[in-house]
Amino acid sequence: MAIFNKGDNQSATETTVISTGAKLKGEFNFESMLHVDGVLDGDILSNSVVVIGNQGHIKGTLKAKKLIVSGVFSGEVDCESVQILAGGSINGNVISEEFIIEAKATFEGKSSVRKVAEENTGELDILIQKNDE
Question: pLDDT: is 11 or 91 the higher one?
Fold first, then answer.
């Protein structure tokens, strides 16, 4: 595990942990996985996975590859994938390509699906034009 590790030798398995009882406020940038059991308030930018544990709470804006919520998130989320596990809660707006809400999880807000660019749109456009003629 790493705690705010800035070393150049990071592996994909390193995790930054914000433990229960810790309260941090500000702007955070992470290359490693982030696991929050404490409280983070602010802007979070991650190139990896952010996990909010059962005791964790994040308030603010979050942009990451993936968000997994067992605790509480309040604010704006922009991730490729968002998953709210049973007992987890998101209150705010979510933009993602994939959004999974398990039974006994809560979501209150607005969700938008980010469209993945399709490679064959040119062929589809041609087919539609031919049918219109």
Answer: 91
